[in-house]
Every structure is written in structure tokens, then in C-alpha cells.
Amino acid sequence: MTKSEHHHITILGSTGSIGCSTLDVVAQLGGRERFVVEALTGNGNIGLLCEQAKAVGARLAVTADEGRYLELKSALAGTGIAVAAGPSGLQEAAARAAEWVMAAIVGTAGLAPTLTAARRGADIALANKECLVSAGALFVRAVAEGGGRLIPVDSEHSAIFQALEDDQRHALERIILTASGGPFRTWSREAMAGVTAEIARAHPNWSMGLKISIGSASMFNKALEMIEAKHLFDVAPEQIEVIVHPQSIVHSMVGYTDGSVLAQLGAPDMRTAIGYALTYPARPALNVERLDFAKLARLDFEAPDEVRFPALRLARTALTRGGLQGAAMNAAEETAFEAFIGGRIGFLDMADIAETVMERMIDWPAAGDMDDVFAGDAAARRFATEAIGARAAA
Ligand SMILES: NC(=O)C1=CN([C@@H]2O[C@H](COP(=O)(O)OP(=O)(O)OC[C@H]3O[C@@H](n4cnc5c(N)ncnc54)[C@H](OP(=O)(O)O)[C@@H]3O)[C@@H](O)[C@H]2O)C=CC1
Ligand SMILES: CC(=O)[C@@H](O)[C@H](O)COP(=O)(O)O
Ligand SMILES: [Mn+2]
């Protein structure tokens, strides 16, 4: 991509944490001089969506919330920006002719539009790990059949992608995912039992959306990332390790058969991974913090504790069992997360609910097509809702 060349892009989830960082990177790399923004999508934050769409001259702005269509339409009246809403609006955004699509909607809600973009051959910059946890190999295949590239954005997977050269794949021995350990890294289970969402959302190093922040605290985020790594890098479960690294400076590592370990390091700022995905295989010049190793002084590592953080054990179980266990764990955790932030269950209940649902779905065979994935996801949500109800009634 040369500087004068227009690059057509779409950002699914532009109003979120990743979406805003993506727009910052786009601005740093030339903004409207260099990029044509085909579509931006958001959900409830109509004010920010309009501001973003006007700033970049987006061709289409979409809210996922059908009930907000008229509000969006009147806010953008006279700007020439087309508007749409709801699931069909998201599909319209994904179907537009952008060569590069940032998948940054939170949760399984991102799967259908990301699939549409993948099937028409767009390069997919994947922040939405839920696509891979739910749909796994089917999603990878959809991108490959569409002809686009699947470029990881999640910081750990971007790090691995950067440290894993294609011509060295034969020597790949293990993937070492780093985990901050979240705000409760040193807490006992008894102490975690009573925490509120306000406390759990305070990540020690990263500024992120609510769902992933709570997932970092329960280590469900790392659980999702273990499954994400399996599908992105086509490795066996036993090749995936997790190491707690409280500073979040080493974003992840690749171990090779000669004993070498290659790591990618950087400040905890998603703009580096986003910039890499946007310009891949080039590396852009970005205005982000540089590491000062003398100031850092030390980097720490510790073994993860699967008793205090059972999500890690559940991910290992899902990886070993296969079938629809990834989709079950993901949908159950998403449902339990909503119940936790709504004050209906406690922090530790989230893992119990996910485990209950995984056990109920232990015999569900691997998905043959995307309909099976959506059916499995819906069933897991039903089972999780039942388990939440039973817990609340007890
Ligand atoms: N934040 C981070 O640093 C990282 C995030 N990720 C992953 O990236 C994804 C996005 O995370 P993050 O940016 O933190 O999340 P945010 O909650 O900050 O943003 C989510 C985005 O999705 C939109 N959205 C919410 N619900 C729906 C829905 N039902 N349908 C369509 N759109 C919806 C939101 O719209 P609105 O705000 O208008 O309501 C917003 O644009 C997640 O999958 C996360 O795991 C991965 C690595 C790092
Ligand atoms: C920025 C990013 O990719 C997040 O997934 C972040 O790494 C969360 O950190 P932990 O889940 O390790 O706390
Ligand atoms: Mn991550």
C-alpha cells in the first residue's frame, strides 16, 4: 500500500475500545488522505458513532440497535452518510466493498457480520476472539475460502503472529500466552467471592471494554485466548501454555524446537497490534509509548493457579474434548457475565455456570456448519439461564 493509494476499510464495533484505537491508528497513518471508511458500526453510543462517521467521512453508519435507527438517521441528516440499523444493518456494513475489516464487536454478536465480511474475501483483523472460540475451524475455513487473510489483533495472538515466521512453522514447539493475572492475581477465592463488577473491571495494565476487563479478572479472557490460539495457529492443546506476567509487557512468546523462545514486547497499548494488522506485512510508524527498560527494571513470571482461576481448567477441558465445548463455554460465560454485572450471581458463579453448561453439552458433536454453531450457542445460553435461575432461587 503506497501513501497515495486509497485503502477501503470497515470497522465493526467502532465505538468501543478497539474501535476507537483503530480510528486513532487510521488518523495517525493518514486519515482521509489514505483511507476510505466504507462503514462504521456501534450499538448504544449513537453520539460517538455520529461524531466518528462525520470525522472520517464514513459512507455508512450502523447501529446494531434497531430501536435507535431514527435517532441515528436524524443525527446524520444532511451529511450524505447512509444509515442502517439492526442485524440487517450490520450485514450491510459487512457486505460493503472494504478490503480490510476490523472485527471489534464484543461477544458472539460479532460472529454473523464478521463471517459475511470473511466470505466475500475481506482481510479480517480479528479482535473478536469469540468468532474463533465459537466457530473454530469453520470460521478459519470461511476466511480461507473467501480468499482474505486472517490477521490477529488480540495482543497475545498478534505477538505470536509477529514472532512466528511462516518458514519456521515446522520448528514450532509451543505457544506461551502471557496473562496479567488481572486485579485478583494474588487474591484468595474467599476474597473474590464478594467482589462487584466495579471492582472486577479495574484492570491493572490495560484500558478495555467491560466484558474483556471482567474476563481478565476471572481469567476467562485467557481461557478464550487458549482456544483462539489453537484455531489461529493450528496447534495441539498440549502445545499451548499460559504464564502469568503481571506487567503485560511481554505480549506472548513462541518456543521453537531448538530451545529458542521469541517474544514480542511493547507498552500495553492496542494501537501497536492494530497498526500491524492494518499495514501487514509492513510495520507502520506509530506514536505510541516506547519501552524504557531501565525504568521497567524487571519483568516477572509466575505459574497460573487453575484452582483460584478455574476458567483455565475449563479451557483445557474444552480443547481436549472438542465438539461444541468452545461454543458452550463462550456462550455460557457471556450469559453468566450479564448476570454478574446485573448483580444476579457472584463473581465465582461465572465459572460454575460455564462448567455446568459444558457438562450438559458434553455429547454435542462438533459443528458441521454455521447453523450448528448458532444452535449450540443458543442452547448454551438457555442452559446457562436455567443454571443462573436455579442459583438465584437457592
Ligand atoms: N479492548 C481491548 O483492548 C481488547 C479487546 N479485544 C476483543 O475485541 C472485542 C471488542 O472489545 P472492546 O473494544 O473492549 O469492547 P467494547 O465494549 O469497548 O466495544 C464493543 C463494541 O461492540 C458494540 N456492540 C456492543 N453490543 C453489540 C451488539 N449486540 N451488536 C453489535 N455491536 C455491539 C459496541 O457498541 P456501543 O459502544 O455503541 O454500545 C462497541 O462498538 C471483544 O471481542 C474483545 O474480547 C481483544 C483484545 C484487546
Ligand atoms: C489487550 C489484550 O489483548 C487483552 O486480552 C489483555 O491482554 C488482557 O489481559 P489479561 O487477560 O492477560 O489480563
Ligand atoms: Mn488478549
TrEMBL record:
<keyword id="KW-0560">Oxidoreductase</keyword>
<feature type="binding site">
    <location>
        <position position="17"/>
    </location>
    <ligand>
        <name>NADPH</name>
    </ligand>
</feature>
<dbReference type="GO" id="GO:0030604">
    <property type="term" value="F:1-deoxy-D-xylulose-5-phosphate reductoisomerase activity"/>
</dbReference>
<dbReference type="InterPro" id="IPR013512">
    <property type="entry name" value="DXP_reductoisomerase_N"/>
</dbReference>
<dbReference type="Pfam" id="PF02670">
    <property type="entry name" value="DXP_reductoisom"/>
</dbReference>
<feature type="binding site">
    <location>
        <position position="130"/>
    </location>
    <ligand>
        <name>NADPH</name>
    </ligand>
</feature>
<dbReference type="Pfam" id="PF13288">
    <property type="entry name" value="DXPR_C"/>
</dbReference>
<feature type="binding site">
    <location>
        <position position="216"/>
    </location>
    <ligand>
        <name>1-deoxy-D-xylulose 5-phosphate</name>
    </ligand>
</feature>
<feature type="binding site">
    <location>
        <position position="225"/>
    </location>
    <ligand>
        <name>Mn(2+)</name>
    </ligand>
</feature>
<feature type="binding site">
    <location>
        <position position="16"/>
    </location>
    <ligand>
        <name>NADPH</name>
    </ligand>
</feature>
<dbReference type="InterPro" id="IPR036291">
    <property type="entry name" value="NAD(P)-bd_dom_sf"/>
</dbReference>
<dbReference type="GO" id="GO:0051484">
    <property type="term" value="P:isopentenyl diphosphate biosynthetic process, methylerythritol 4-phosphate pathway involved in terpenoid biosynthetic process"/>
</dbReference>
<keyword id="KW-0460">Magnesium</keyword>
<feature type="domain" description="DXP reductoisomerase C-terminal">
    <location>
        <begin position="265"/>
        <end position="382"/>
    </location>
</feature>
<dbReference type="InterPro" id="IPR026877">
    <property type="entry name" value="DXPR_C"/>
</dbReference>
<dbReference type="InterPro" id="IPR013644">
    <property type="entry name" value="DXP_reductoisomerase_C"/>
</dbReference>
<protein>
    <recommendedName>
        <fullName>1-deoxy-D-xylulose 5-phosphate reductoisomerase</fullName>
        <ecNumber>1.1.1.267</ecNumber>
    </recommendedName>
</protein>
<feature type="domain" description="1-deoxy-D-xylulose 5-phosphate reductoisomerase C-terminal">
    <location>
        <begin position="150"/>
        <end position="233"/>
    </location>
</feature>
<dbReference type="InterPro" id="IPR003821">
    <property type="entry name" value="DXP_reductoisomerase"/>
</dbReference>
<feature type="binding site">
    <location>
        <position position="209"/>
    </location>
    <ligand>
        <name>NADPH</name>
    </ligand>
</feature>
<feature type="domain" description="1-deoxy-D-xylulose 5-phosphate reductoisomerase N-terminal">
    <location>
        <begin position="9"/>
        <end position="136"/>
    </location>
</feature>
<keyword id="KW-0464">Manganese</keyword>
<feature type="binding site">
    <location>
        <position position="203"/>
    </location>
    <ligand>
        <name>1-deoxy-D-xylulose 5-phosphate</name>
    </ligand>
</feature>
<feature type="binding site">
    <location>
        <position position="156"/>
    </location>
    <ligand>
        <name>1-deoxy-D-xylulose 5-phosphate</name>
    </ligand>
</feature>
<feature type="binding site">
    <location>
        <position position="18"/>
    </location>
    <ligand>
        <name>NADPH</name>
    </ligand>
</feature>
<feature type="binding site">
    <location>
        <position position="128"/>
    </location>
    <ligand>
        <name>NADPH</name>
    </ligand>
</feature>
<feature type="binding site">
    <location>
        <position position="45"/>
    </location>
    <ligand>
        <name>NADPH</name>
    </ligand>
</feature>
<dbReference type="GO" id="GO:0030145">
    <property type="term" value="F:manganese ion binding"/>
</dbReference>
<comment type="similarity">
    <text>Belongs to the DXR family.</text>
</comment>
<feature type="binding site">
    <location>
        <position position="154"/>
    </location>
    <ligand>
        <name>Mn(2+)</name>
    </ligand>
</feature>
<dbReference type="InterPro" id="IPR036169">
    <property type="entry name" value="DXPR_C_sf"/>
</dbReference>
<feature type="binding site">
    <location>
        <position position="15"/>
    </location>
    <ligand>
        <name>NADPH</name>
    </ligand>
</feature>
<feature type="binding site">
    <location>
        <position position="156"/>
    </location>
    <ligand>
        <name>Mn(2+)</name>
    </ligand>
</feature>
<keyword id="KW-0414">Isoprene biosynthesis</keyword>
<feature type="binding site">
    <location>
        <position position="225"/>
    </location>
    <ligand>
        <name>1-deoxy-D-xylulose 5-phosphate</name>
    </ligand>
</feature>
<feature type="binding site">
    <location>
        <position position="180"/>
    </location>
    <ligand>
        <name>1-deoxy-D-xylulose 5-phosphate</name>
    </ligand>
</feature>
<keyword id="KW-0479">Metal-binding</keyword>
<comment type="function">
    <text>Catalyzes the NADPH-dependent rearrangement and reduction of 1-deoxy-D-xylulose-5-phosphate (DXP) to 2-C-methyl-D-erythritol 4-phosphate (MEP).</text>
</comment>
<dbReference type="Pfam" id="PF08436">
    <property type="entry name" value="DXP_redisom_C"/>
</dbReference>
<feature type="binding site">
    <location>
        <position position="129"/>
    </location>
    <ligand>
        <name>1-deoxy-D-xylulose 5-phosphate</name>
    </ligand>
</feature>
<feature type="binding site">
    <location>
        <position position="222"/>
    </location>
    <ligand>
        <name>1-deoxy-D-xylulose 5-phosphate</name>
    </ligand>
</feature>
<comment type="pathway">
    <text>Isoprenoid biosynthesis; isopentenyl diphosphate biosynthesis via DXP pathway; isopentenyl diphosphate from 1-deoxy-D-xylulose 5-phosphate: step 1/6.</text>
</comment>
